[in-house]
Predict the structure of Ketimine reductase mu-crystallin.
Amino acid sequence: MGSTPPVFIGAEEVEKHLHRASLLLPALEAALANFSAGAAGGVVQPVRAVVPVQPHGGYLGVMPAYSAVDDALTTKLVTFYEHMKDSSVPSHQATILLFDPRNGSLRAVLDGSVITAKRTAAVSAIATKLLMPAFAEVLCILGAGVQAYSHYDIFTELFSFKEVRIWNRTKEKALKFASSVNGPVRVCSSAQEAVSGADVIVTVTMATTPILLGDWVKPGAHINAVGASRPDWRELDDELMKNSVLFVDSREAALTESGDVILSGAEIFAELGEVVKGTKPALPEKTTVFKSLGMAVEDTVAAKFVYDSWSAGN
Ligand SMILES: NC(=O)C1=CN([C@@H]2O[C@H](COP(=O)(O)OP(=O)(O)OC[C@H]3O[C@@H](n4cnc5c(N)ncnc54)[C@H](O)[C@@H]3O)[C@@H](O)[C@H]2O)C=CC1
Ligand SMILES: O=C(O)C1=NCCCC1
C-alpha cells in the first residue's frame, strides 16, 4: 500500500488558520524555552545553511528542525533577494515541508511566507513583553515592508501605545503603510525623527549599513533588530550594540550570521529562551536589543499549528 500523498496548504489557507499571529504565542514561547534548554529541551536545530546566488544578489536558506516535545519535523526553504527590481515579487519567499516524524513521510507542503511574517513578529512581541520599559508609550517601526505590517498588527493587538511612528527609505512606502493599517501612524521624514523619544523600536529593513544610531535612542528603550541577517550586514551601529544589553534568539546563529553582533564585538547577555524560562533576568530598566535572526523551530511549531488546525477542519 502506497503512502498518502502530501497535502498543499497555500498562503490563503495558512492565513485562514493563522488569522492572528498571537495564536502562536504559547507554542513559540515554549519553543524558545525548549531551544535554550539544550539537549533536555529536545530541539534539534542546526544553524541554517545559506547558499549565496551571487550574480542575482540572492540567498537560499535551508532551515530544518525537530522538536521532540511537539513531535514535529520540518524544514523551511527560504529565498531572500536584495535590490528586487520587480517590486511585484516579494524579497522573501518561503516554503515549509512537514514530515511525519515516525516514518519520514512528507505530510504537507505549506506556504512559508505568511508563517515567516507572523512568527517573526510574534517572537519580537514576546521579546518586547519581557524587555520593554514600564509605561512604554511610543512605538517606532523602521522599514515598511512585509515584516513592518506583521509587527504592527501584533504590537497594536497586544500593547497600548499612544503613538506609532514609521520611517522608510522611500517615503511613498511609509505613506502607503500609514494609509493601509487600522489606526493612526505618524510618517517621519528621517529615522532620527522617528526614533527620538521612542520606547520600543523595530528595525525591519533590508539595510546593509546602520540605519539606527545609538546616539538617537532614548536610554531604557527596547529595540527588536529583525533585519541584517548576514555576517557583513548591519542595521544598528557599534555604539548602540555596545551600550545595550544584548539578547539573541540563538547564540550560535548570532555569532555566525549577525553582522551587528560579530562586527561590533558586543557581548551576548542571554538567549530570549533563557529569559522565558527564567534562568536569565530580563532587565527592562536598561536599554535592550533583541537581535532576531529567525529560528527553524519557530517555523516547526507554526507549521504544526496550521497543519493541526487544517486537519481538524477548522
Ligand atoms: N529575524 C527573522 O526572523 C526574519 C528577518 N527578516 C528580515 O527582516 C527584514 C524585513 O523583511 P521584509 O519586511 O520581509 O522585507 P521587505 O522587502 O518586504 O521590506 C524591506 C524594507 O526595507 C526597506 N529597505 C530596503 N533597503 C534598504 C536600505 N538599504 N536601507 C533602509 N531601508 C531599506 C524597503 O524599502 C522595505 O520597506 C529583512 O532584513 C529580512 O531579511 C525576515 C524574515 C524573518
Ligand atoms: O528566519 C527566517 O525565515 C529568515 N531570517 C533571516 C532572513 C531570511 C529569512
User: Anything to note?
Assistant: The mean pLDDT is 97. The pocket of NAI (ligand 1) is lined by residues 80, 91-92, 116, 120, 143-148, 168-170, 173, 204-207, 211, 226-227, 229, 292-294 (CB under 6 Å).
